[in-house]
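Internal QA ticket QA-208
Title: Verify multi-chain structure generation after dependency bump
Assignee: T.L.

Test input:
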Amino acid sequence: MSINYGSKRLVVGAHYGLRDWLVQRATAVIMALFTIVLVVQCLTPGEMSYLKWGAIFAHQWMKVLTFVTIASILWHAWVGVRDVLMDYVKQLAPRLVLQVAAIVWLVGCAGWALQVLWRI
Amino acid sequence: MADAKAIKKRPGQMRLIDATQYRLPPAGWVSILHRISGLVLIILMPFVIWMFDTSVTDEVSFDQFRNAFIGGLGFVPAFIVKLAALALIWSFLQHFCAGVRHLYMDFTHTVDKEFGRVSALVAIGVAAALTLVFAYKLFIGY
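Actual output:
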């Protein structure tokens, strides 16, 4: 097991970043599944109304799936933003400020979305 | 030291503005569009949650949600609301199509140049075509 902390930590080499790469794929699959499930339910016969739309999210399993999807978006977006910032913002100070701003933005959005989801 | 002289001067650190100087292949376009659409989705996230909130809370708020696309939202005219929705739709579709392409390549280990080119064009084309369908529904058919 390589040391991942302190002055002797491993900062280069194989597998460095593998977890983020894998998380990006796993969360993408979850979000794609959610999309398909939602679209299929929307396309069932009957005109779109509040009753139909609300009923989709009334099921407990749909709430759980939506919850997992919100968590996936949060994590997926963070890995993506971090990649983009590492590529284009080379100076430490602006990069740190933008990273913190991204975390605040994403966590805030996730909190709001969960609040909406729980009260349905 | 003739060899050392023959080595070209290194270009140095790439800046974001340099990316506009390149003529990108289709796969390169998908790559940069993936980043742009991802950022748009993050920036428009409050709009998505607002739509989720109003559409799902109760019948009164559902009507408010519908009205935003007809009578506008506060001081924002309906046209701008629709435009924001369309930006959201394109970004989502582009990110979705390019993402599926990514996953497909990862799962099947498809790494050849021709597939990369063709699938990139398909991803951009499918996203653009579906965006046009939604644009029609939003601006003309609704």
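Spot checks passed. The CA atoms of residues 134 and 140 of chain B lie 10 Å apart.
Status: verified.
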